[in-house]
């Protein structure tokens, strides 16, 4: 019939012939006389049908359509619209959802909304359902966000092992019965006060004039909504939290949502106050521009500076030096701790003070650093903390210092680490949200994740909740990729007890060290020995050394100096005078090996952004992959880059599925002994420090392209 499309379905025999071809680049020849058909030309929609009107692309076969393999008849189809009591719902509409308590079906709150991305119909049951992204009022997440009237956040839940894009994982299925009515939503990245209802003309019923409470209720139920936040949560298959991301909506996301939902039309009696024009996602509430100025590609790569808050004796500062930072200062309240910090980091300024007082010091901008790190006290948030302690209040209040300090310093990047109980335990959720709220309020985007530091080269199972923070206008840095794992992972071998103690056990310089004197068990407490070449430290190091952690001989506990090796400290680290004090500072430390990889990932992101290789809104989960997709190779360019020349492709086997970080009793598979060929070496503390300083000067000279002259005397 003229004007109608003809559809042809190939037979099952022809479909079998096509599927039996092993090389898809070869042409298909069938009994029907079809020749010259490339397998890649077959449509990929899986319907088994082909449009004969558009089958004229092959010369000599204008009247013959291309064959398609028939799939089973679909049970679900996508439809353009669906009619409900309140009107016709189409793709792009925003629906207010009915939330029931599961008993009487009554509405008990209006918190959730849905951006309709697709509408489906089940052909067997005739049921319809919507698929889209869920939005939720910010009041639902209090105290994470300021409770603004009619402000929403886009909520997306993802799975750790799901490799699909976040936007696809975030699509939720909602039955049509849950839809109450359509609402108007403006998606923006501007500050709330720039787009709130105060800047709009809201026409309320005349009967409500003068009744402030009723007007508030009417606006809540019928007024325009504002969405400017994105909250992504990463969970395990059983629902336990694993990580997440909270940030201001990117401009590209804002444009996509607004185009999908169509601009809100102006009514005849409305003026331009209803419209949002010339939106700039980098404008602060004061109107100042937040877009950072990219550093020009200098002949000498910039060396970033580092500030260490709650520094302890300097575990994070050791990691920063290893990553290539210049340590500006360390902040700690304990005088004895800062004496050890000054001994370990002689070039850094020592600020012995309460971190709460830092924003009030004279000229705090003099302590500006490119990167700041916060190791806030974690004892209260530890999973093993089950009894109240006398310092609990003081320990909790350390998390309230991060926001004010960032507000004063305005550092482009910051990191933090905390005990994983802060995100896992329900009783700590309010503190977790307050901590994030303080940071978001001062113009930062946040990414967080629970990581077992053993995968970063630490010889102990040590789960930590890591945070990456970036000032709005800078891209969020990814977390470091795992570098160590079991043999099947394709990564480097786990660092074992023997690996960590290798240098210490072969040095006589620490035989008289008061922190390296063994304390033997009583004969009744002797424990079974184990092979140090095959295992990690049995448990996480704590301020008391850790439960069930003992020497592989079974005859004694580890010494404090040995524990410092498990925290990847240099052997010559000054740990204080007493055993109790040394155990405390070692157990509280951020392991230097993990800190170095954590900070290096941030520095590489900053350098890539300064050189224009990435943009502020790039979603970077692996910087090497992001740059590789753009055709950028940074290896072998030591004169141009200081940090990116150390960027490497992850060696993890794609088929390897990392284990859950939440397992309490996870057997460590046997590790094959690592061959040792290096002879024992003596270590002198002063000479070791001098050697590190010389190596640092050599690296600097290499970057500068100068020649270093070393006098014989």
TrEMBL record:
Keyword Methyltransferase carried by entry: yes
An example Pfam family from this entry, by short name, is: DNA_methylase
UniProt name for this protein: DNA (cytosine-5-)-methyltransferase
Family stated for the protein in its record: Belongs to the class I-like SAM-binding methyltransferase superfamily. C5-methyltransferase family.
* Source organism of the structure: Periconia macrospinosa
Catalytic residues (UniProt): 378
- Cellular component aspect of the GO annotation: nucleus
What lineage, starting at the top, does this entry show? Answer: Eukaryota, Fungi, Dikarya, Ascomycota, Pezizomycotina
- Known EC number: 2.1.1.37
Q: Which GO terms describe its biological process?
A: methylation; negative regulation of gene expression via chromosomal CpG island methylation
């Amino acid at each position: 019939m003229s004007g109608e499309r003809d559809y042809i379905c190939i037979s099952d025999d022809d479909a079998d012939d096509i599927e039996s071809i092993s090389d898809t680049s070869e042409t298909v020849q069938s009994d029907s006389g079809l020749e010259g058909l490339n397998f890649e030309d077959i449509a990929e929609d899986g319907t088994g049908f082909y449009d004969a009107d558009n089958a004229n692309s092959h010369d000599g076969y204008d009247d013959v359509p291309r064959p398609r393999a028939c799939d089973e008849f679909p049970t679900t189809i996508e439809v353009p619209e669906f009619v409900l009591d309140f009107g016709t719902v189409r793709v792009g509409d925003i629906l207010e959802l009915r939330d029931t308590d599961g008993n009487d079906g009554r509405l008990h709150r209006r918190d959730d909304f849905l951006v309709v991305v697709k509408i489906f119909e089940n052909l067997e049951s005739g049921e319809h359902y919507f698929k889209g992204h869920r939005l939720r009022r910010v009041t639902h997440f209090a105290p994470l966000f300021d409770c603004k009237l009619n402000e929403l956040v886009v909520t997306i839940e993802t799975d750790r092992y799901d490799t699909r894009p976040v936007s696809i994982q975030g699509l939720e299925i909602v039955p049509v019965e849950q839809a109450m009515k359509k609402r108007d939503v403006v998606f923006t990245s501007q500050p709330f006060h720039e787009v709130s209802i105060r800047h709009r003309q809201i026409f309320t019923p005349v009967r409500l004039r003068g009744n402030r409470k009723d007007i508030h209720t009417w606006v809540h139920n019928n007024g325009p909504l504002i969405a400017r936040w994105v909250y992504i949560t990463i969970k395990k298959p059983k629902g336990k939290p694993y990580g997440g991301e909270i940030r201001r909506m990117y401009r590209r996301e804002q444009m996509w949502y607004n185009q999908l939902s169509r601009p809100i039309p102006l009514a005849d009696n409305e003026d331009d106050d209803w419209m949002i024009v010339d939106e700039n996602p980098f404008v602060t509430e004061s109107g100042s521009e937040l877009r950072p100025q990219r550093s020009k590609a200098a002949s000498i790569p910039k060396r970033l500076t580092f500030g260490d808050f709650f520094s302890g004796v300097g575990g994070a500062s050791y990691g920063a030096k290893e990553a290539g930072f210049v340590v500006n200062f360390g902040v700690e309240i304990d005088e004895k701790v800062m004496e050890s910090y000054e001994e370990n980091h002689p070039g850094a300024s020592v600020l012995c003070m309460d971190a709460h007082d830092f924003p009030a010091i004279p000229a705090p901008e003099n302590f500006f650093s490119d990167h700041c790190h916060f190791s806030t006290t974690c004892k209260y948030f530890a999973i093993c903390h089950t009894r109240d302690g006398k310092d609990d209040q003081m320990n909790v209040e350390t998390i309230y210092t991060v926001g004010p300090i960032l507000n004063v310093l305005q550092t482009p990047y910051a990191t933090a680490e905390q005990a994983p109980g802060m995100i896992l335990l329900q009783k700590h959720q309010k503190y977790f949200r307050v901590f994030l709220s303080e940071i978001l309020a001062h113009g930062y985007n946040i990414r967080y994740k629970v990581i077992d530091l053993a995968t970063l080269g630490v010889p102990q199972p040590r789960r930590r909740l890591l945070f990456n923070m970036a000032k709005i206008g800078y891209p969020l840095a990814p977390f470091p990729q795992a570098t160590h794992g079991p043999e099947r992972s394709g990564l480097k071998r786990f660092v074992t007890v023997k690996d960590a103690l290798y240098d210490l056990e072969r040095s006589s310089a620490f035989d008289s060290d008061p922190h390296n004197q063994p304390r033997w068990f009583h004969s009744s407490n002797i424990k079974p020995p184990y092979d140090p070449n095959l295992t990690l430290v049995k448990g996480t190091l704590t301020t008391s050394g850790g439960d069930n952690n003992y020497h592989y001989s079974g005859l004694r506990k580890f010494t404090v100096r040995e524990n410092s090796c498990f925290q990847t400290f240099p052997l010559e680290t000054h740990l204080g005078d007493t055993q109790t004090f040394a155990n405390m500072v070692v157990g509280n430390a951020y392991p230097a090996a993990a800190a170095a990889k954590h900070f290096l990932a941030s520095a590489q992101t900053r350098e890539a952004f300064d050189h224009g290789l990435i943009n502020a809104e790039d979603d970077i989960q692996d910087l090497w992959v992001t740059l590789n997709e753009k055709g950028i190779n940074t290896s072998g360019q030591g004169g141009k880059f200081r940090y990116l020349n150390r960027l490497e492709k992850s060696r993890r086997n794609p088929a390897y599925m990392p284990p859950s970080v939440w397992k309490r009793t996870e057997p460590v598979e046997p590790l094959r002994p690592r061959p040792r060929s290096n002879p024992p070496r003596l270590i002198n503390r002063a000479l070791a420090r001098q050697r590190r300083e010389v190596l640092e000067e050599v690296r600097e000279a290499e970057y500068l392209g100068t020649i270093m002259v070393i006098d014989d005397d």
